């Protein structure tokens, strides 16, 4: 290392300069100075290798799985055959026993969207699986037989460790490919993805080109055929387009992605809950009615008191539109839902709320604004140890690009924000502690750019620090 000399009295300034080169400190927390290199946000062409269809006539494609019941002992296996229904059975066996079984309760759907007709979409629910067990499964038959595997979650319990991945607003650009690759290479080896909405971005193409739903399904198969992805609907799943005669919201999404919503007494696949290891996960719909007396409102009102924190200490809420957001993009869009639901999030001591929608990253302090009404002027969020941490992770890499413009000065409630693409992990250790980190996509290397040791709001409600 070379030697350095400073003028008298300049060392403090040098230290300050070094500090400011790492982070820009505003009224709030940290606004990262990192500026990612920009290249065009365009969807990869259809002939990209990541979209390649499997060989063989009518071979099953777009294979994906999600949790199939409330407690993790079921799995929904879904796939598409392009030309005809084909085999409707899923053959599966435990790696422990090798005893082969098959399920026949497969539902096959198709749909039409403007000038597009889907392939044959299969959904098969397999039940009564053993916990923490590797299963192999086969869809298709004969020369187009395709084999995959998954691992069931462990039994639900208060100190069961489990690692979730977090991805949002993914799309199918080169940046999307980097995000998915980095997720699959994450050294924490996450076991399941909490996906906070906006999947294919097919609606950003002329006539909502549903071929982009097919290419996206093939693109993510390399992960979602092996891991449960827990789905949240976003605005790009609505696909409401009356100018071309499409009046049914969420048509492609609801045909393609089956949800175990009835297991939690929900009346809609757009909001539901599941248990997984030591976590209770509640999924909300930002684009369904949620005012008082609506079905989603009534469901959540009845759902939150059911959560037993002695069984599932970690209470996680997923939605698409963030309730707190200090970017100029989609600014205040979540305000009406915040007014309705935030008092409950605080009352029931939700640990963390994950959202997407804003194409950047942000983590909040534990704050609330339940005192505010339109007449009292108390419009500034305050520190609240019972409140969730709000994390925006709509940074998967989609066609619309990054949200780079931030509100200034940075609000006090904002702990860290950065306009980059990436993914995150939420690594539950036991009932009191979980490690969270956000990984930036940067120059081919997934860099851990933000992290926090979470302390459980029910069992260990002390203030965290980064």
Automatic annotation (TrEMBL):
Catalytic activity: a phosphate monoester + H2O = an alcohol + phosphate
EC numbers on record: 3.1.3.2
Residue ranges of coiled coil: none
Cofactor: Fe cation; Zn(2+)
GO cellular component, one term: plant-type cell wall
Residue ranges constituting the Fibronectin type-III domain according to the UniProt record: 59-155
Signal sequence, renumbered to the chain: 1-28
Molecular function GO terms recorded: acid phosphatase activity; metal ion binding
UniProt keyword list: Glycoprotein, Hydrolase, Iron, Metal-binding, Signal, Zinc
Record Gene3D superfamilies: 3.60.21.10, Purple acid phosphatase-like, N-terminal
One of the GO BP terms on file: cellular response to phosphate starvation
Family note: Belongs to the metallophosphoesterase superfamily. Purple acid phosphatase family.
PANTHER family attached to this UniProt entry: ACID PHOSPHATASE RELATED, PURPLE ACID PHOSPHATASE 10
Designated name of the protein: Purple acid phosphatase
